[in-house]
Amino acid sequence: MISMYTDPRGEAYEQIIDLAIQKSESFVLGEKIGNSPDVDRSHIANVLEALEPYLMKTIVIQDDDRAEVERIRKNFNSHAFYTTGTYYFYKCCEESGRVLKQMANRLSDWVYPNLPEDLCFLKKGGGDYLYSVVHEHMYGIDVTEEEAVELMNRITGLFLKLQAHQDLDRLLDDAIKHKTDWLYISGHGLTELPEQIRELTELRDLEIFEQDLYRLPAGLFELSKLERLKIMTADLESIPASVAKLKNLKELRIYCGSSDRPTPTFRLKPKEQISLNRIPPEIGELEQLEHLSIHYTSIHELPLELERLKHLRFLDLGNCMIKRKPAFLNRMKKLEYVNVSQSSLF
């Protein structure tokens, strides 16, 4: 089973549905017990009605019957069954595939309350050919590494996790080609990010876990569609003022004192020696920012411009050098959680 970095969308979604219909016997959609009963189910009802001619069977797993969940999951060997609910099995055919393509634009669209959840295609005899667990951002397809390369060459927008992506240049080349909106970079021994990062123009979610990463390139802050940025490293030089260019950023998380490959000789710097010692005042220009976490730094004060973040709900500056919570934070009425302390929690 080869995982996807993100789910294919648009034409790539239609091509992968066609492929899964050819390779599978049935597909499964679910309504989970935990789904709110108060939402409008009219659209879900329309989808179920459109798929009714292809319905093979329905399985209902009662609330709190974990043993039954495990039995069903083991029986079908599928990611589809992880909680109680109602599961609908449909015949794979050209007509049912057409409905799936009409009702959604990508696998992550199959989520409650807009649609029944977690589209999974089952092979004859059990096991997933294609699976999705949308809330966990998990997607995968049952192909070999060689088949995955062939599919990626054929379907632009299908971005699969290959062994070859241990080479960073290959990873970035494929990420750019397939216009990915999510990327995780780790284990490459980077001290700097390559400037090629600026070519990931569709990126909305970027996570970097590289303990030797020290400097952030200008190209990173040209990713205008970026909504979530998470950086984990042992030490970071600074947050550049150009962070203000990320106008769509909703979440910024930076964790110093992190190691992606700890060894017996690895020694964590005292936080007093961490290079990251200030938050640039330009942070106040991130009008969409809702979540700001910066941990294990020598930051000793907060810029007053932070108060301009009208949508900020979560502020977490643990293990920093700030001695007391600034008074201006009390005026930020949207804040739901605040941790500004010299320890992990305050």
TrEMBL record:
<protein>
    <submittedName>
        <fullName>Leucine-rich repeat domain-containing protein</fullName>
    </submittedName>
</protein>
<dbReference type="InterPro" id="IPR050216">
    <property type="entry name" value="LRR_domain-containing"/>
</dbReference>
<keyword id="KW-0433">Leucine-rich repeat</keyword>
<dbReference type="InterPro" id="IPR032675">
    <property type="entry name" value="LRR_dom_sf"/>
</dbReference>
<keyword id="KW-0677">Repeat</keyword>
